[in-house]
Amino acid sequence: MSTWPNKPVSEFTDEELADAIEQHQADTDPVTRDLVRGCTREWERRRGLAPEEA
């Protein structure tokens, strides 16, 4: 995956989440870092590792 999917993080497939985290986790851009954190939170939420956000 060379670009971010054009949809909200909550609509990413598991594969898109994994690709985004893997490919962009070392990026130093603050906006990209925030997107990676969102992907990580969504990945954890789907696996019951993080609480649901209200």
Give a description of the structure.
The structure is a single chain. The chain has helices at 14-24, 30-46. The chain contains two helices and no strands. The model has no long low-confidence stretch (mean pLDDT 88). It starts with 13 loop residues before the first helix and ends in an 8-residue tail after the last helix. The radius of gyration is 11 Å and the shape is globular. Helix 1 (14-24) packs antiparallel against helix 2 (30-46). The longest helix is centred in the last third of the chain and has 17 residues, at 30-46. By secondary structure, it is mostly helical.
Features:
single chain, about 55 residues, mainly alpha, 2 helices, about 0% strand
